[in-house]
Amino acid sequence: MNEGLITRLSNADAVACRETEVRAVMHEELDDIADAVEYDKLGSIMFKSAGTEENPVRVLFTGHMDEAGFMVRYISDIGMVHVIGVGGPRKNSVESQIVRIKTRSGKKVRGVLFAKRADLESQPGDMYIDFGCETAEEVAELGIQIGDWGTFDADCELKPVGDILLGKAFDDRAGVYVVTEAMKRLAGTPHAAELWFAGSSSEEVGCRGAATAAAHLDADIVIPVDIANAPEFTRNWENQRKCGHGPMIVHYDRMHVPNEKMLHHIIDLAEKNNIPFQRDIFKGGGTDAGTAHLVGDGKLATVIGVPVRYCHGSWSVMRGGDLDAAVDLVCAIATSIDRATYEELKSFD
After folding, report:
1. Is 10 helix (H, G, I), strand (E, B) or coil?
2. What is the β-pairing status of strands 300-301 and 221-229?
3. Which residue in 43, 55, 92, 295 has the fewest CB atoms around it within 10 Å?
4. What number of other Cβ atoms are within 10 A of residue 207's Cβ?
5. Is residue 85 within 8 Å of residue 93, measured between CB atoms?
6. How confident is the model at residue 237, as a pLDDT?
7. Is 171 annotated as a binding residue?
């Protein structure tokens, strides 16, 4: 595991359409090995690794750059900064938490997040940040304005035992990490397909960026790498998202059912290469595959997931070994696709 990279990605702040800090990390890691760098009009960034075939299949691997966070809605005359959630912050993580708001100047201001409740049993309602100010004018002196955005204030750390990671925004900096490390590992390795490794924009507000990236590239295959929330107390056969047991190959969610041949191709690759994996089914929710596979007349797509506990929270838990196995799987997929394989996978005869 590249501890430095996952730390930088986790510590970067980025909500939907405000992903500059994550793009900067990807630039630092991949500019020198990319054959081209392109953007869609939402801000998704794509790095090219050219294929060896004359008419190569175009494969897009993507992790979304945005995280769950907050946006300033209004500022009261007593100096309280009221915010809305952007991308669905975890409900039990919105009280007595340190958050940071990024101002237009780029300065980050830390405050304490709270939420109003009708009583102790009710769900949190209106969220607000207390910066210690007594007036709206004092808030303005901090540089905070309506429309400024922020995230939980947490710094990623590797625990001294094993490969345990604690940090924020693993949804989906885990995916960004995987596509970034996979491209680096494949540098100098010949592959038939034309590969694109992307950080997609705005997944948390409607699964948007992978679709626009797929349209921009006219990709043939789209492989989103995302996370799934691992139940913290269920460790039996009912939990196919156990931390430390490898990535999930997702068989179904409410927005996407993968092409059966593509799904079996990836499972066979994992088994052939002794890559640990789990077979997961989402009862609800969805990922970038849900929109990207509908671009044009349809794209082959399958989701690779990394198990994470407490996603969208102020802190999450993840295992480095699951990241490594996901990188292994992406590399195996990337080097397995050529024109003949693609034609077989998309054939319904």
Report:
1. helix
2. parallel
3. 55
4. 22
5. no
6. 85
7. yes
| Alpha-carbon gap, residue 89 to 115, rounded angstroms | 12
Q: What is the CA radius of gyration of the chain?
A: 21
271 is in an annotated binding site: no
| Residue 204 assigned as binding residue | yes
Return mean pLDDT, the chain.
Answer: 95
Q: Residues, the chain, total?
A: 349
Distance CA(172)–CA(149), nearest Å, equals 18
Enumerate domains of the chain plus CATH numbers.
3-67+168-345 (3.40.630.10), 69-152 (2.40.30.40)
Q: Where are the beta strands (DSSP E) in 219-325?
A: 221-229, 248-252, 278-281, 300-301, 304-308, 316-319
CB 224 within 8 A of CB 210: yes
The number of C-alpha atoms within 13 Å of 143 and in the hemisphere containing its C-beta is 12
- Return d(Cα 245, Cα 226) in angstroms, integer: 16
* Helix segments in the chain, DSSP class H: 3-11, 20-30, 136-141, 170-186, 209-217, 260-272, 289-292, 320-334, 339-345
- Tokens describing residue 197: 């490794």
Q: Which of 19, 67, 194, 203 does the annotation list as catalytic? A: 203
Q: Residue 22's Cα: distance from chain center in Å?
A: 11
pLDDT above 70 as % of the chain: 98
Cα 94 from Cα 75, distance rounded (Å) = 18
| 203 is annotated as an active-site residue | yes
Judge whether 271 and 334 are in contact, CB under 8 Å: no
Residue 64 among known ligand-binding residues? yes
Q: Is residue 311 within 8 Å of 152, Cβ to Cβ? A: no
pLDDT tens, 104-161?
Answer: 999 999 999 999 876 666 677 789 999 999 999 999 999 999 999 999 999 999 998 8
